[in-house]
Design brief:
globular; two-stranded antiparallel sheet; Arc Repressor Mutant, subunit A; single chain; 359 residues; alpha/beta; 13 helices; Rossmann fold; seven-stranded mixed beta sheet
């Protein structure tokens, strides 16, 4: 007969600290929905640069109901997203917050991520069931809000770093692109990364592929709007069988870790690269050891990996389930196992590592 473990005495100070930290978690969780509302209804954009406003003024400017707006503003003030002048009963969106919440061209534009959060909450029953069964949940099985939210979240980061920093870090690749190169963007999603490269390098041609048909449809429409459809082709294909040969550059943006068989995908990349071509792998920033990732960025990525990345990989063949915090060491091992002799970290940001692999 087993005996129950003796109950450890509670440290009341630590308990109080944890409860108050959890209250912060509650506020952050509820406010995620309010940020989505503020983004959808244009509340942040209406406040940006407008100075101090009353709830009635903001409601009038956005065509919304004053009573709802007043409560929304109170929550935003309590969370430090807006400031409140008690004497005048007015609220202000400071320029720093406006840069992150209202300016879509900003490199730190954040609302897209909160649309991802909203989609994850809707999909919680699917993930809970996956915990029980051990089965995967494919990208295509998620709430549609995930796709647009992901594109809006990653777009500012790619716009800020892709052409200015990441491609120039790949040796002779930038010169090839300027002269006219063939590029494959695998796992391209809604095509933002493909279109950014096409706009920057008008002499090159680009082939974007993704297994998700709806994303490819939306990518094609985006290429038309951007005026690059004559040099960009999007098609439905998996990472292990996308068509084409002799690419000067193959790019994987934040997707290798989502794949069920990343080594199989890497072998296919090697087969499709030109002899002197480069493979650029953009992945979430992570150290190789779990204990070194226990920080705010790691917290976001492990949570996203639990809800999105790991289920996606487990839904596919092999189901290696690298997770979003695989780290450079594990990624490099997979690339070398696939036959790449040269693997290095070409660039990094606080949110991404960029690996370059060559034959």
């Amino acid at each position: 007969m087993s005996t129950a473990a003796p109950q450890q005495p509670l440290n009341e100070a630590k308990l109080h600290e944890f409860v108050m930290r959890s209250v912060g978690e509650m506020g952050a969780a509820m406010n995620a929905a309010l940020i989505v509302i503020g983004d959808k209804l244009g509340l942040y954009k209406a406040m940006a640069g407008a100075g101090a406003m009353t709830p009635a003024e903001l409601a009038s400017k956005t065509g919304t109901a004053e009573r709802y707006v007043r409560e929304w503003l109170s929550a935003q003030a309590a969370g430090g997203l807006v400031t409140y002048d008690a004497a005048g009963g007015r609220y202000t969106l400071p320029p720093e917050q406006a840069f992150a919440l209202a300016e879509e061209a900003s490199p730190v534009f954040l609302p897209g991520f909160f649309h991802i959060v909203a989609a994850c909450m809707k999909d919680e029953p699917k993930i809970s069931e996956a915990f029980r069964s051990g089965k995967g949940v494919g990208w295509h099985e998620h709430d549609p809000g995930l796709f647009a939210g992901t594109e809006r979240f990653f777009r500012p980061n790619y716009r800020a770093h892709l052409v200015k920093e990441w491609i120039p870090a790949l040796g002779d690749t930038e010169a090839k692109l300027k002269g006219g190169a063939r590029v494959a963007d695998v796992g391209c999603g809604l095509g933002t990364s493909t279109i950014l490269m096409a706009q920057a390098y008008p002499n090159s041609t680009f082939a974007g592929s993704d297994y998700h048909a709806k994303s490819i449809e939306m990518a094609g429409e985006a290429a038309q709007r951007a005026g690059v459809a004559d040099r960009v082709k999007f098609e439905v294909a998996k990472a292990k069988d996308y068509p084409g040969k002799n690419f000067d550059l193959v790019a994987f943006f934040d997707c290798l870790h989502d794949m069920g068989d990343p080594e199989g995908a890497a072998r296919h990349v090697r087969e499709t690269l030109a002899p002197d071509g480069a493979w650029m792998i953009v992945e979430p920033f992570a150290h190789d050891k779990l204990e070194d990732n226990l920080n705010p960025i790691g917290r976001v990525y492990y949570a996203a990996s639990t809800m999105l990345c790991t289920p996606a990989s487990l839904s596919q063949e092999v189901g290696l389930a690298l997770g979003a915090q695989a780290g450079e060491g594990r990624l490099a091992k997979i690339l070398r196992a696939a036959g790449f002799s040269r693997v290095r970290r070409a660039a990094e940001t606080p949110f991404n590592i960029v690996l370059e692999a060559r034959r």
